[in-house]
Amino acid sequence: RLLHRFITNTSLKIDTPGHATAEGFWLLHDKEPIEAMQAFAVVRPFLYGEEMFILAETLAAFHDTKEPSTIATLQLPTFPTEPYLRPITWKALNTLRRVVEDTQIVQRSVSNFTRSLTLNRALGELRSIIDNAETLPQAEGELILNIAQTWQTALLKIAGEVGKATSSSGGKTSCDN
Questions:
Q1: Are 119 and 158 in contact (CB under 8 A)?
Q2: Cα–Cα distance measured from residue 147 to residue 126, given in angstroms and rounded to the nearest whole number
Q3: Are 116 and 102 in contact (CB under 8 A)?
Q4: Tell me: the pLDDT tens digits for 61-120?
Q5: Bond before 17 cis per omega within 30 degrees
């Protein structure tokens, strides 16, 4: 049946909660968070269903952002409260949410020192996800790793600009002037 799905590329099989859940996890594994969101929408009323829907919704938002300016403008859903079905995933998503917040500061701060400090913190958070990717659940792990790597590349592009601005000011912050 699985081989048949690959060959025929059929549409989502979400006719029962069990099928919808399995399909949702499979779609996360295939790096298709928008489709996974559709599958998890079927199980929203069930235990942990809302958590999985929000997880897929969050991953879809993260997956679609590839530039610092779009990372900084992300509007994220309210994260569910513990206990979690996927605690390790939520730890990674909270780390990515902090990267969004740091990127917002980098984008709007006038202080070169603040921008540099915040950018380095964000890059460190992404490095942590990348270095610990093997601890992420198999279904969504590669997708989270891909997001972290994409964001790291995007933030490294602006690191040179921030570094040049900091060095051209002689290391002085706006408070030093």
A1: yes
A2: 9
A3: no
A4: 999 999 999 999 999 999 999 999 999 999 999 999 999 999 999 999 999 999 999 999
A5: no
Q: What token pair was written down for 32? A: 């298709």
- pLDDT tens for residues 127-159? 999 999 999 999 999 999 999 999 999 999 998
Q: What is the distance between the alpha carbons of residues 3 and 72, in angstroms, rounded to a whole number?
A: 40
Query: Tokens for 104?
Result: 């917002």
d(CA 14, CA 22): 9
Q: Residue 136, CB half-sphere, CA atoms under 13 Å: how many?
A: 24
20/125 Cα distance (integer angstroms): 33
Residues 6+ apart with CB under 8 A from 64: 70
The tokens for 135 are: 């601890």
pTM: 0.86
